[in-house]
Amino acid sequence: MTSMLQIALDAMGGDSAPVPEVEGALMAARDLGVKVLLAGRPERLQVALQEAGWTTEPIEILPASEVVAMDETATRAVRTKRDSSLRVGLEALKQGRAVGFVSAGNTGAVVAAATLWLGTIPGIARPALATVLPTLNGRGTLLLDIGANADCKPAMLDQFAVMGATYAERILGVARPQVGLLSIGEESVKGNELTRETHALLRQHAAHRPFDFVGNVEGKDVYAGVVDVIVCDGFTGNVVLKVSEGLATTLLTLLQQAFGSAAGARDALSGLQQVRARFDYAEYGGAPLLGIRQPVIIGHGRSTPQAICNAIRVARDAHLRHLNHQIAADPAVVAMLQTPHRNGATASIPSLA
Amino acid sequence: MTSMLQIALDAMGGDSAPVPEVEGALMAARDLGVKVLLAGRPERLQVALQEAGWTTEPIEILPASEVVAMDETATRAVRTKRDSSLRVGLEALKQGRAVGFVSAGNTGAVVAAATLWLGTIPGIARPALATVLPTLNGRGTLLLDIGANADCKPAMLDQFAVMGATYAERILGVARPQVGLLSIGEESVKGNELTRETHALLRQHAAHRPFDFVGNVEGKDVYAGVVDVIVCDGFTGNVVLKVSEGLATTLLTLLQQAFGSAAGARDALSGLQQVRARFDYAEYGGAPLLGIRQPVIIGHGRSTPQAICNAIRVARDAHLRHLNHQIAADPAVVAMLQTPHRNGATASIPSLA
């Protein structure tokens, strides 16, 4: 038991906290060979643990008296709530008690707190939130940034490409990742100012990098699986993710209505549910915040217990496969450390909006 | 016959031109009570018309010797190809021979050419491309800009809101449209610089406008039908549209595979096809370029004959319902004309990338 890996969980973060968090923690403690440190209000967590049928699973409560709300600004959350479940959980990671941290809370607050309290990997200006999207060919595509940075500079996207490729190689097992830049036309001149400048930067660095920059990809390519990694600014990435969530729900609801009265409806609906689960971010959840010194994983606010458990697995695997060390040791990242930052990717904490 | 409305069609624009264009023109000439003026290479169009079984439908060829390619830069297309099907078709509109123009060609070139040769409505800095997306509740949501302007300023988005609301009211029949700003969080402070500034501008103008600005909406709201009009920059809008196209294809293909062997597969697949058609931009096509002095409608490069016919209907209806005059007469647009442009929405032709 003494050598069991410990993962810290912000038990008060999600929309329905702490119930899905506690249930997901119990799943993880049973199935993943980890001990879960639940940061939050002790009385509330004791009740939730009892209701979830806790007996001997390796769980420990880290008392935290405050909770960061979903609509709270990151600045306020980070500056004023010194005893929040977010802070206490991250502190366990910083002190080395935990090897990873998971939160389904306020994304902006988690990003700001992780950047401020844990710091970015030397050479990396800003962390980026990444998620693997399901694709037609079954390979999956890593999309980043999906919401850590609403306003980006070309050099930031250049770094996201490096971190995304390292993730694809180390965690997803892709030998030499194919990286694309999300734009609105395949030609390098198509897109907005940000993508045009980023395209030039990625092209310029391509020869020295352990991945292939394939150029621009379009929205229609995201779910086709034409590349392993797609890079974009956090505003666009977040819109892509949430439009997808909404469209999948709408399409599948319409189909459910269409099948309701059809012969063989039961088989059709069962197929529908299987496909739905693959596209439901609240189900498969667990987005790594790449570029932070230690593993930080952010889940959807509506994370189910299964999604919390999945996010804990992602944190564990990031630790076991030395993801953060791999990013830090990446020659491209080391090179960034040795050259002054240009194009605005200065190493600083994000604007706390 | 003399008073029959005439619509000019760029018959050489789309990916498979001129076949879908010619077939769509014949459908429109038969069903919509319009005469279609086909701009393009006369020999090629004669052959296509014969192959499509043309007999007495009101069709006329406008000879044009050049074609703007899909990957051509807008600058080059507009500056050098003076006898392109795009130019000749737009000229018929400008001269009053046609009451509307349709192209399934190079979007950037159509936008640039329409802006340069027809001009924007006085007070409007830049045109915006709009499309009605299907929603769960069946009302539909108008999304703009979906690709006319990759880089936008707050005042441009403010104008898009006004034009979108006029379209929703005049063409879609919505009494007092609800308008939302696409962002990555419902609170006004959430989003990127552009959305935060645009939010403030829309809020500031809200009291004097014939629509309700409901604030930020998120990606998940796009297909939920929570508002009538959603405003965004053309980069984001184009990504939304193309991600949707790709995701719908991927989801429906996966379902098709899942149903292939199921009992009642035939019924399920038929339901699937119905839903697919509603979400296939190449099928329902026909995006109005709002803010130009006369009706210009842009179709998907992969437009089917049905989509071309639909786009011709959109052009006809824009004329019959005085859409462009309504936008020009909108008090908010008139007010823009009387106050100097701020925040970068200067009346000029778009950067021709």
Automatic annotation (TrEMBL), chains A, B:
Subcellular location(s) per record: Cytoplasm
EC number: 2.3.1.274
GO MF entry, a single one: acyltransferase activity
Pathway: Lipid metabolism; phospholipid metabolism
Keywords: Acyltransferase, Cytoplasm, Lipid biosynthesis, Lipid metabolism, Phospholipid biosynthesis, Phospholipid metabolism, Transferase
Major place of residence: cytoplasm
Top-level class of the enzyme under EC nomenclature: transferase
Reaction(s) catalysed (UniProt annotation): a fatty acyl-[ACP] + phosphate = an acyl phosphate + holo-[ACP]
Quaternary structure note: Homodimer. Probably interacts with PlsY.
Similarity comment text for this entry: Belongs to the PlsX family.
Protein function: Catalyzes the reversible formation of acyl-phosphate (acyl-PO(4)) from acyl-[acyl-carrier-protein] (acyl-ACP). This enzyme utilizes acyl-ACP as fatty acyl donor, but not acyl-CoA.
Protein name: Phosphate acyltransferase
Upper classification of the organism: Bacteria, Pseudomonadati, Acidobacteriota, Terriglobia, Terriglobales
